[in-house]
Amino acid sequence: MKSIRSMIIPAVVSVIAAFLFSSPVYAGPVYRIVIPLVRGEEARAELPGGRIFPLGKVTGLPTATRWPGYTASKWAAPGTVAASAVNAVHLTLSVEKDAGRTMSILPLHTVAPAAGEKAFISLDVPAGTGFFGGWAPPVGTRVLVRKADGLLVPLEVSGLPSPGDELIFDVEEEERPYIIDVENRPGGRVLGWYQAGPKVLARVIRPVRGVGRFGGTEFQGRGRIRANHSGVIDVSTAGRGVTGGFQILPFLHSKSKEMGGAWQLTQWLIIASETERALPGTAPLFLGNLVPGSQMSDVLWDIWSTYGRKPLVLCRLDGGPWEKLPEEGGKQDFALERVTHLRIYSPFTGEPQKQ
After folding, report:
1. 15: enclosing H helix or E strand
2. Rounded distance between C-alpha atoms, residue 311 and residue 289, angstroms
3. CA nearest 133: which of 245, 246, 250, 240?
């Protein structure tokens, strides 16, 4: 028999989402993140009202950029966040010869293969927390560089920042669906639920059936977003400390050399646009929405931001009621075979119906 908790949690989240259906869309930056490129100095989040939250000390600085970067980095706009994950935040500085030039920010004691060997800033915080958790900037967040004289320069103009500079992230909440529903079957709809009603965002080309050993999922809880970038949504299916999850890919990325195995294996859900516009790098699936979310000791500025900025992924098994994802780790080709629907709750920070 299901526990009362397992039945209550989805219901509570659905009630909150229902309130959000008619809540106003926030306009303007919600908070700013400042990362000083000085060893030993504190990265911080700043609220418009002046409150400051520490995000960890800088322990390492980049001496190079990475080119070519991972495939999907070319679908991010120059000077923006290209990936937001529990184990890395990647930035695209420029796109050259159809490949992104990247720089990364990593938590301490974490491996992120997409980061260049000398092309990253490190912060002394655990993976999945702070800048890599509840405070993570969504894909598409524009990055500025504040020089020693106070001048603000776009990252794509600055290139590799110099020691003593500061990276500035103004995090915004753009219009997004409060829920994204996926019908896990060929031809199934990917529906976004907006204030004005539902909208078909994409169609399923190949459903997901299994889970795999995706790096970084060991730093995230079950049913949470491990990573979002301009070409993937990575979802954890196991508890923190265990590797296991699946990925949602746009069709264009599934045909890249990097993702060639996606069509032979069961761990990828492949979707395609219904329009002529390709999905990579577009909202709300691969831009401006999903983040890893708060976990462990993450505390934001109030209860709504702390728990609202914690995207949840639920499922339906054999068309039944919404429930948590099956807890499965490692590589299991048919662990999600009974999953007929997936539901992703978008993060939010504002109190529903606040006047």
Report:
1. helix 4-20
2. 10
3. 240
Q: Per-residue pLDDT tens for 206-258?
A: 999 999 999 999 999 999 999 999 999 999 999 999 999 999 999 999 988 88
- How far apart CA 296 and CA 240 sit, in angstroms, is 10
For the stretch 21-51, pLDDT in tens is 434 344 569 999 999 999 999 999 999 999 9
DSSP 150: S
| Chain centroid offset of residue 305 CA | 16
Report the distance separating Cα 20 and Cα 346, nearest Å.
Answer: 11
Query: What distance in Å separates the CA atoms of residue 39 and residue 121, rounded to the nearest whole number?
Result: 10
Q: Which residues of 135-172 are buried (b: 16+ CB within 10 A; e: fewer)?
A: bbbbbbbbbbbbeeeeeebebbebeebeeebbbbbbbb
Helix or strand holding residue 200 (H, E): strand 197-206
The length of the chain, given as a count of residues: 355
Residue at 108: amino acid letter: L
Q: Tokens 């991972």 sit at which residue? A: 70
Tokens of 210: 């299994």
The DSSP secondary structure of 39-98, one letter per residue, reads: TTPEEEEE-TTS-EEEEEEEEE--S--BSS--GGGGGSPTTEEEEEETTEEEEEEEEETT
Q: In the numeric block, which tokens belong to residue 239?
A: 């508890």
Task: Decide: 261 and 206 in contact? Cβ < 8 Å.
Answer: no
Structure tokens at 107: 């938590």
Contact indicator for 228, 286 with CB cutoff of 8 Å: yes
DSSP 285: T
Identify the CA nearest to 132 among candidates 245, 296, 250. Answer: 296
Q: Residue 335 in contact with residue 326, Cβ under 8 Å? A: yes
The pair of structure tokens assigned to 143 is: 């990055």
**Which are the contacts of 7, defined by CB distance < 8 A and separation ≥ 6?**
none
**In this structure, what token pair is assigned to residue 70?**
């991972």
Report pLDDT digits (tens) over 69-105: 999 999 999 999 999 999 999 999 999 999 999 999 9
CB 139 within 8 A of CB 286: yes
Q: In one letter, which amino acid is 59?
A: T
